[in-house]
Amino acid sequence: MVISDDNPRYVSRLTRNTLGPVLAGGRGSRLYELTSWRAKPAVYFGGKYRIIDFPLSNCVNSGVRKIGVLTQYKAHSLIRHLMRGWSHFRRELGEYIEVLPASQRYSDDWYQGTADAVYQNLDIIRAERPEFVLILAGDHVYKMDYGPLLVEHVESGADMTVCCLEVPVAEAAGTFGVMEIDNTGRVVGFQEKPAQPAEIPGRPGYCLASMGNYVFTTDFLYERLIEDAATIGSTHDFGHDVIPAMIESCHVHAHPFRDPVSGDKAYWRDVGTLDSYWQANMELVTTTPQLNLYDSDWPLWTYQEQMPPAKFVFDDPGRRGLALQSMVAGGCIISGSEVHGSVLFSGVYVHPHSLVDGAVLLPDVEVGSGTTLGRVIVDRNCQIPEGMQIGLNPEEDRSNGFRVSAGGVTLVTRGMLGQAEGSL
């Protein structure tokens, strides 16, 4: 099959006959209180999106229109977002996005691991009769056309294909699943979060790290999952158990994820820590960010409330409403205050004589008058009292009950401010 240069996202038989389960049940414990009331895929990102919007948009733009979102941990806000923003697909036209919550379909347990999550939905997959199953992690930020991945899977003759990134060895150590490959791209070794990752042949200092995205030929997937479910001592995880058990006897292929234009390493972020989450948002306010949210050829879909445009009011000396090198969503009001190098989600209200510099403010945050915010992440619905200074002095922030990351980013939640918390 040839993918035309004029239409690189041609919806082919491969994409039409592919089912995309998205693993979205993870807690994201390294985000601490930011995921106390929501699963990691439901965390806000980029001024108006949630993380789950990125793999779902990738599927839709790639022509994979049969999608199941597997949920488990504190899924209320995630399911609500999916119902409001992603429920417009028509099953009678062969497309849908359905929620597949942990429901003990095959055992008395909830999802025990990534492989078990898919195993417990085997009856649903069988009923759809897909030719291929594209298993995706639901908690990463990136843009990827899955069509070429499916083409390479078929052309290589693989039973399974693993999406991977070329990353420095030091960065991958203890963090990613790492693959060893031969000169044809066949995986000959797999280690889950090794202390000393194996290097890519001919590229010293770099290794192939798994993105947590896998393509299976469907019948082969059935066999592997049933076998793993019956294996005593298995943790029922693709990285820990299923892939390592396949290396010697099956054809596992590696698909490096590269920029389709430059051929270089493509943009991909885990945003699994407070520092990486803050940094990835800050990257978006640079003049030419690597992740282009304004690309009309690859639209990012989401749900958003119908809100008025952002407003900047007052133009007096010492009381001027402005935002520079920032992203400001609809419904925000910057009233006689300055915003620099920040990301403001919808409905944020910054009262007069305040300075916001290097902040990520989630929806409906209210910043009191005379407040200074530095390197902070402020959770949804927080009301910052007048005159507070947060994100400037880590020790002072800790003494005030806020969480300060290893990189010096301060997290503020309603609970830390003595305000009522809940599902968001």
TrEMBL record:
<dbReference type="Pfam" id="PF00483">
    <property type="entry name" value="NTP_transferase"/>
</dbReference>
<feature type="binding site">
    <location>
        <begin position="192"/>
        <end position="193"/>
    </location>
    <ligand>
        <name>alpha-D-glucose 1-phosphate</name>
    </ligand>
</feature>
<keyword id="KW-0320">Glycogen biosynthesis</keyword>
<comment type="subunit">
    <text>Homotetramer.</text>
</comment>
<keyword id="KW-0321">Glycogen metabolism</keyword>
<feature type="site" description="Could play a key role in the communication between the regulatory and the substrate sites">
    <location>
        <position position="72"/>
    </location>
</feature>
<keyword id="KW-0119">Carbohydrate metabolism</keyword>
<feature type="binding site">
    <location>
        <position position="111"/>
    </location>
    <ligand>
        <name>alpha-D-glucose 1-phosphate</name>
    </ligand>
</feature>
<feature type="binding site">
    <location>
        <position position="210"/>
    </location>
    <ligand>
        <name>alpha-D-glucose 1-phosphate</name>
    </ligand>
</feature>
<dbReference type="InterPro" id="IPR011004">
    <property type="entry name" value="Trimer_LpxA-like_sf"/>
</dbReference>
<comment type="pathway">
    <text>Glycan biosynthesis; glycogen biosynthesis.</text>
</comment>
<dbReference type="InterPro" id="IPR023049">
    <property type="entry name" value="GlgC_bac"/>
</dbReference>
<dbReference type="InterPro" id="IPR005836">
    <property type="entry name" value="ADP_Glu_pyroP_CS"/>
</dbReference>
<dbReference type="InterPro" id="IPR056818">
    <property type="entry name" value="GlmU/GlgC-like_hexapep"/>
</dbReference>
<dbReference type="InterPro" id="IPR029044">
    <property type="entry name" value="Nucleotide-diphossugar_trans"/>
</dbReference>
<keyword id="KW-0067">ATP-binding</keyword>
<keyword id="KW-0808">Transferase</keyword>
<dbReference type="GO" id="GO:0005524">
    <property type="term" value="F:ATP binding"/>
</dbReference>
<comment type="function">
    <text>Involved in the biosynthesis of ADP-glucose, a building block required for the elongation reactions to produce glycogen. Catalyzes the reaction between ATP and alpha-D-glucose 1-phosphate (G1P) to produce pyrophosphate and ADP-Glc.</text>
</comment>
<dbReference type="GO" id="GO:0005978">
    <property type="term" value="P:glycogen biosynthetic process"/>
</dbReference>
<feature type="domain" description="Glucose-1-phosphate adenylyltransferase/Bifunctional protein GlmU-like C-terminal hexapeptide">
    <location>
        <begin position="308"/>
        <end position="412"/>
    </location>
</feature>
<dbReference type="Pfam" id="PF24894">
    <property type="entry name" value="Hexapep_GlmU"/>
</dbReference>
<keyword id="KW-0548">Nucleotidyltransferase</keyword>
<feature type="domain" description="Nucleotidyl transferase">
    <location>
        <begin position="22"/>
        <end position="284"/>
    </location>
</feature>
<dbReference type="InterPro" id="IPR005835">
    <property type="entry name" value="NTP_transferase_dom"/>
</dbReference>
<keyword id="KW-0547">Nucleotide-binding</keyword>
<dbReference type="GO" id="GO:0008878">
    <property type="term" value="F:glucose-1-phosphate adenylyltransferase activity"/>
</dbReference>
<comment type="similarity">
    <text>Belongs to the bacterial/plant glucose-1-phosphate adenylyltransferase family.</text>
</comment>
<feature type="site" description="Could play a key role in the communication between the regulatory and the substrate sites">
    <location>
        <position position="110"/>
    </location>
</feature>
<protein>
    <recommendedName>
        <fullName>Glucose-1-phosphate adenylyltransferase</fullName>
        <ecNumber>2.7.7.27</ecNumber>
    </recommendedName>
</protein>
<dbReference type="InterPro" id="IPR011831">
    <property type="entry name" value="ADP-Glc_PPase"/>
</dbReference>
<feature type="binding site">
    <location>
        <position position="177"/>
    </location>
    <ligand>
        <name>alpha-D-glucose 1-phosphate</name>
    </ligand>
</feature>
